[in-house]
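Handoff note, outgoing to incoming analyst
You'll be picking up this chain. Sequence as last confirmed:
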Amino acid sequence: MRILDLEPDQNPQLAEIKIDSQSVYQGSFLQVEKDTVKLPDGKLVTREYIKHPGAVVILPLFDDGSVLMERQFRYPLNQVFIEFPAGKIDPNEDSLACAKRELREETGYTASEWQFVCTIHNAIAYADEHLDIYLARGLVAGDAKLDEEEFLETFTVPASELLEWVKAGKITDVKTVIGAFWLDKLLNQEWNL
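Most recent structure output, in case you need it:
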């Protein structure tokens, strides 16, 4: 079995080369690009994708093994989702600083201990979005400072129940599913940071 290198410059036979780019839509949050690219066989095709500034996900773990979660309505799917706290990285903002800010703004909590878990790419076929996941411990309650257009509820659940919620379809948000699996592996000492 051959393991492929993941670096595009080490696999030029797979690379798509940008020939031209145009901005199709510029919103206050997202931008849509339409690029003309040359495929490995020389053909020219277009690629449309969403430009996203990136985001963070926080796994807020209490000393008793429970985690802080959120319920939030998500307009594109017209339903309330159970999620880990998360938020968009502001221009020139460090991802850890963003994680600390988002946890405090959305939940009121601060954490004394932060560990980087991983980076995920949740929509690789149509967006350049990445999410940096952090584990937060040493949680201290405070007052939330939600954005003017933001409405959510926070609650706690034993971390040991999260995978059952994933299995039952109660949690379907991809960042929360991945965070639940990471948290399970970390708490069971199967993976280390």
